[in-house]
């Protein structure tokens, strides 16, 4: 979490050196929708040094890639209307042709790097299917491209990082053969969201909450990522992943560590990540024989949007097996066995094709111990602090207050604090994260032990779910997920459906 990246300014631009941003998977979907628009905005804001280059490793003719970039930006970037900016950006592009499995591609890439600058800083971005990670890193190492004698060399890897603990460990070992851990940036784009970083600042820049931030005052925590989108065009990946791997093992467990961690000794990548790992290591191991008591999986059936548009069932989506048992909704109740959180459930849930798109963290406080107010009136509702991560980023504190008039009856009061930037322009997660890689700032990236530990935590659930025969269904476009009330029966006020 670069302090600099939260307040991008010209000071930041001076800090980044000229670099070669090398994209593997330069014609892929991630490149088109996220990387290119982010890089263009970074050029606009001066967050990418003007002498930098953007190198696309492409199988086809380099000229085709240049046309692809122009078209992708026109489709996905509002900045593409600025023709002077587009010309500047295009002058930075440099295609290198070749197959990823061919060592000669990397030799050509090395030549392309060395002919441009004396110092050849490079950021290698793997926007490719995970099956390619080890081959690409192996080839980079084989031609000496991870050697930092002439400039930094950093490898950015997208999730999924492995599909279980063993594969994540194997991939780590393969990467370490050709590079140091400090050269690896495992991206979790949730950590790049400004509202997620604000969780960290909110906790550790305010003393007000600290006395309350523990098992004595907090009943439970719900961490939500509810999406309205379905599987879209991603069935080949999603069929093998499912909601638990896709969202909980990565994004939501990362958010959980930010909510639960102790203050780090210093604002440094090492200290912050040490504290996050401590949380993960304290998560109570899941007993494979009791997985149903702490988790829930479901799949969307057909339904319709609020506007009445028909939504197809998951198992009829293109590329999905008709008898698919992949979960599109997953919820897990974790316990963190340490002094601060003993006995406090952390319920993490995510679903595709839900009624509303909302990501948030809800901290539910305990009920007041004694009700002083009129017999027959409702009990005061437990307070809740909600961090809305997206959309409408902000914080909401739910309190009880007196209804005006000759009564001691209560009303619910919501204190809200929208989280927005002065110029109304929040940075996209990829802009923040790419800028951090250029600065060599690693706190927003997952370290090897974080990834391995989080896989170990969810493994018994994955194992138990792989043996199930059928999945409960929920109506697409609804909140009708059977079993959520049961899962949250011990949590005050139960399942918090985002409003
Ligand atoms: C990705 C998942 O990592 O995050 C997707 O693979 C999901 O399935 C996406 O849709 C959600 O990200 P965001 O930023 O839209 O909440």
Can you characterise this structure?
This protein is of the alpha/beta class and 499 residues long. The chain has 2 domains: 3-158, NAD(P)-binding Rossmann-like Domain (Rossmann fold, 3-Layer(aba) Sandwich), CATH 3.40.50.720; 191-426 and 448-487, Dihydrodipicolinate Reductase, domain 2 (2-Layer Sandwich). 35% of the residues lie in helices and 20% in strands. The protein contains 15 helices and 18 strands. The protein has helices at 3-6, 10-15, 29-45, 62-76, 83-92, 103-114, 133-142, 165-178, 194-204, 235-260, 269-282, 291-294, 429-439, 448-466, 484-487; strands spanning 20-24, 53-58, 93-97, 122-126, 153-157, 184-187, 218-226, 295-301, 303-304, 310-311, 329-335, 345-351, 358-365, 384-390, 394-402, 410-418, 445-446, 473-475. The strands form 3 sheets. The chain has a 9-stranded mixed sheet with strand order 16-15-14-13-7-12-11-8-18. Strands 3-2-1-4-5-6-17 form a 7-stranded mixed sheet, with helices on both faces. It has a two-stranded antiparallel sheet with strand order 9-10. A hairpin with a 7-residue loop joins strand 15 (394-402) and strand 16. The longest helix is centred in the middle third of the chain and has 26 residues, at 235-260. It is globular, with a radius of gyration of 24 Å. The two termini are 30 Å apart. The structure holds 6-O-phosphono-beta-D-glucopyranose (BG6). 6-O-phosphono-beta-D-glucopyranose binds next to loops.
């Amino acid at each position: 979490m670069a302090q600099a990246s939260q307040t991008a300014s010209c000071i930041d631009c001076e800090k980044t050196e000229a670099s070669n941003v090398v994209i593997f998977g330069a014609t892929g979907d991630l490149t088109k929708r996220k990387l290119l628009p982010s890089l263009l905005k970074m050029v606009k804001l001066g967050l990418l040094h003007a002498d930098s280059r953007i190198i696309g490793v492409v199988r086809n003719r380099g000229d085709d890639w240049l046309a692809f970039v122009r078209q992708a930006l026109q489709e996905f970037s509002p900045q593409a209307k600025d023709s002077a900016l587009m010309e500047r950006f295009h002058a930075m592009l440099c295609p290198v042709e070749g197959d990823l499995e061919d060592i000669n591609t990397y030799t050509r890439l090395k030549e392309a790097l060395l002919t441009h600058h004396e110092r050849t800083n490079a950021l290698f971005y793997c926007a490719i299917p995970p099956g390619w990670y080890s081959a690409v890193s192996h080839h980079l190492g084989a031609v000496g491209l991870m050697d930092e004698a002439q400039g930094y060399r950093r490898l950015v890897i997208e999730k999924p990082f492995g599909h279980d603990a063993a594969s994540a460990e194997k991939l780590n070992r393969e990467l370490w053969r050709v590079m140091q851990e400090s050269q690896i940036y495992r991206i979790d784009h949730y950590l790049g969201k400004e509202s997620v970083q604000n969780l960290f600042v909110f906790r550790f820049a305010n003393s007000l909450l600290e006395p309350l931030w523990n098992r004595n005052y907090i009943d439970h925590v719900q961490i939500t990522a509810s999406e309205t989108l379905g599987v879209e065009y991603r069935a080949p990946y999603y069929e093998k992943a499912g909601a638990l791997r896709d969202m909980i093992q990565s994004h939501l467990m990362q958010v959980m560590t930010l909510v639960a961690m102790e203050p780090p000794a210093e604002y440094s990548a090492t200290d912050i990540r040490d504290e996050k790992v401590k949380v993960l290591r304290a998560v109570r191991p899941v007993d494979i024989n009791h997985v149903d008591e702490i988790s829930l999986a479901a799949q969307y059936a057909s339904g319709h949007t609020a506007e009445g548009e028909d939504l197809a069932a998951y198992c009829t989506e293109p590329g999905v097996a008709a008898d698919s048992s992949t979960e599109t909704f997953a919820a897990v109740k974790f316990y963190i066995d340490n002094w601060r959180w003993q006995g406090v459930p952390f319920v993490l849930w995510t679903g595709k094709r839900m009624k509303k798109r909302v990501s948030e963290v809800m901290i539910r406080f305990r009920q007041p111990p004694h009700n002083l107010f009129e017999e027959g009136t409702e009990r005061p509702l437990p307070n809740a602090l909600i961090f809305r991560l997206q959309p409408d980023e902000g914080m909401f504190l739910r309190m009880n207050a007196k209804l005006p008039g000759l009564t001691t009856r209560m009303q619910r009061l919501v204190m809200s604090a929208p989280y927005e930037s002065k110029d109304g322009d929040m940075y996209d997660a990829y802009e923040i994260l790419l800028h951090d890689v250029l600065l060599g700032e690693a706190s927003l990236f997952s370290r090897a032990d974080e990834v391995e530990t989080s896989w170990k935590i969810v493994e018994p659930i994955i194992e138990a779910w792989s043996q199930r025969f059928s999945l409960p269904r929920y109506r697409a476009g609804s909140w009708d997920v059977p079993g959520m009330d049961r899962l949250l029966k011990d949590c005050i006020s139960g399942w918090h459906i985002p409003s």
